[in-house]
Amino acid sequence: MKLEVLEKDCYYHIYNRGINGTTIFENDGNKLYFLKQLAKYSADKISIFAYCLMNNHFHLIVRLNVEEKEVTQAFSNLFNSYAKAFNKQINRTGSLFEKHFKRIKLKDENYLKQLIVYIHLNPKHHFNLDFRNFKFSSFQAYLSDKQTKIERNEGLNLFDDLENFIFCHNQKDNLLNETYTFE
């Protein structure tokens, strides 16, 4: 599989999972450490618009602020540092993530908006959890006034405002509820 070439100033859906679907986050501490390492290695290299950390995979929406080589190296450093710490913690060896992180270039603003909602609803998709209260997605950062690494203002502008941001998430959530209702 040929990987998408990363381009400066473009938006991407970055995601990966544990090798063979294995767990990559065993607890909240693992997820917090991953986010800490993400901030450390990606500072000024990418802008983050959304994220969600599930037990066996993660999703990010990013915009590249520098050239591909720097971003690819930053992600490599992030994944290597996280895998080493995780493996040490649970006394395991070997690869943690699938070989390459996946990346899809987002071609238009509408797709970007839909993907932000999709990523925030990931806990609902996989575990029927209320995405509004899920601790390890960027949804709460959009609702908060606290300082964040998320491009909150720019992200909200895509939806026009916070009210419409929430409305779009609730609409998609309602569709998911209807999809899973059996009579």
Question: What would your notes on this structure say?
Answer:
This protein is an alpha+beta fold and 183 residues long. It has a single domain, classed as Transposase IS200-like (Alpha-Beta Plaits), CATH 3.30.70.1290. The chain contains seven helices and four strands; from the N terminus they run βαββαβααααα. The N and C termini lie far apart (42 Å). The C terminus is likely disordered. Pfam families: Y1_Tnp (PF01797). This is Transposase IS200-like domain-containing protein.
Topology:
Layout: E1 11-17, H1 28-42, E2 46-53, E3 57-64, H2 68-90, E4 102-105, H3 109-120, H4 122-127, H5 139-143, H6 152-158, H7 162-179
Antiparallel strand pairs: 1-3, 1-4, 2-3
Helix pairs in contact: 1-2
**Low confidence ranges:** 179-183
Level-1 CATH class name: Alpha Beta
Q: What is the mean predicted local confidence, pLDDT?
A: 91
**Strand arrangement, largest sheet?**
2-3-1-4
Number of domains: 1
The percent range for helix content is 40-55%
Write the CATH homologous superfamily: Transposase IS200-like
Strand-pairing-aware structural class:
alpha+beta
- Give the C-alpha Rg: 16 Å
Query: What spatial form do the alpha-carbon principal axes imply?
Result: globular
Annotation, overall tally of beta strands: 4
Q: Helical region count?
A: 7
CATH topology: Alpha-Beta Plaits
Largest sheet: 4 strands, antiparallel
SSE string, helix = H, strand = E? EHEEHEHHHHH
CATH architecture classification: 2-Layer Sandwich
How much of the residues is beta strand, in percent?
5-15%
